[in-house]
Design brief:
Na+/H+ antiporter like fold; globular; 81% helix; 341 residues
Length: 341
């Protein structure tokens, strides 16, 4: 099991590379991931969310109770900045309906568990990051369909109620199961071994989702890649900037501002990819945007975290900003298990 944990750590460390490799393999042999559709895709998405749920314990829900203002402000910033920027960029760049659909879908999704790791690496407020991810995931089955109906529902056939039901199935249910298992068995050595392997399994599941998109929309991926990358890059960059500024507006400390930048800028693009192929199967471009965003967010978030730590070293800041409070220290210690020393 220790070997599997090490493999899991490596997969987590090189998430972007694994996803790119999956896409490359699919272009060479499309049948490799052609099975990732329908019910199989639902199961793969459920595995990703189960892995996230297994990182949530009693301490995380205590954070929600102890820091409601911080987390509500952060989640509000995430669920307003990213969807509205997405539709603005779409209009500014005159994107096609399919690209607009994909960009808005990415912007309307909650944060992913990878943002927690990035916040830790950036010396952000990790407890705050976990709280935001948890709360945004809980709200997503309601908020994401509402934003989609409001922003693109008039131009795209949109089943908001169906998306709500689907997101309950693939987000809240597996997250709840994983969290309950974590609370019940977190002190068991066998469960810790399983939990240490889950990040790597989640990365492989992400790769399967992207590979499935590439298998179905391989030709369109090349046709739309350039403009999709440009739109995603602008969207992601503005999310980082406005997330950081939103922290400044509410008087947050440096650690919280860094966390807000990452939590707002980095979305659960893997979920967006699954939603796109499930609810907009004829829109190749929307799936392309979500798949490309999965890679882009992983790379840019890691780069931003490294830039923050480089800035600290350059300015002689030795204090670990991620440990400003006891809740953060506890979460940071648990996250260290998923990182390469």
């Amino acid at each position: 099991m220790n070997v599997l944990a090490v493999i899991s750590q490596q997969l987590t460390r090189f998430t972007a590379l694994v996803i790119i490799l999956a896409a490359a393999v699919t272009f060479i042999e499309p049948a490799t991931f052609s099975w990732v559709k329908g019910d199989a895709q639902v199961v793969v998405l459920g595995i990703i969310m189960l892995a996230m749920g297994m990182t949530l314990g009693k301490e995380d829900y205590q954070i929600l109770a102890k820091r409601p203002f911080d987390i509500c402000i952060g989640t509000l910033a995430q669920f307003t900045i990213m969807p509205l920027i997405a539709i603005a960029i779409s209009k500014l760049l005159n994107l096609s309906p399919g690209l607009t659909l994909g960009l808005v879908l990415v912007g309307s999704c909650p944060g992913g568990v990878s943002s927690n790791i990035m916040s830790y690496l950036a010396r952000g407020d990790v407890a705050f990051s976990v709280g935001m991810t948890t709360f945004s995931t809980i709200l997503a089955p309601v908020v994401t369909p509402l934003w989609m109906v409001y922003l693109v529902g008039q131009t795209v056939e949109m089943d908001g109620w169906g998306m709500f039901r689907f997101m309950l199935l693939v987000t809240l249910v597996p997250v709840a199961i994983g969290s309950i298992l974590n609370i019940m068995f977190q002190n068991k050595s066998w469960f810790e071994s399983v939990r240490n392997v889950m990040p790597g399994i989640a990365v492989l599941a992400f790769a399967c989702i992207v590979g499935g998109v590439a298998a179905v929309f391989g030709a369109q991926l090349f046709e739309s890649a350039l403009i999709a990358v440009a739109a995603i890059a602008i969207h992601n960059f503005l999310g980082y900037v406005l997330g950081y500024l939103s922290g400044t507006l509410v008087g947050a400390n440096t650690a919280k501002k860094r966390t807000l930048a990452i939590e707002v800028g980095v979305q659960n693009a893997g979920l967006a990819t699954g939603l796109s192929t499930k609810f907009f199967p004829t829109s190749a471009e929307s799936a392309v945007v979500a798949a490309v965003a999965t890679i882009w967010h992983s790379v840019s978030g890691s780069v931003l975290a490294n830039l923050f730590t480089w800035w600290d070293r350059r300015n002689g800041i030795e204090a670990n900003l991620a440990k400003d409070n006891s809740e953060t220290a506890k979460i940071a210690k648990s996250l260290e298990k998923d990182l390469i020393s």
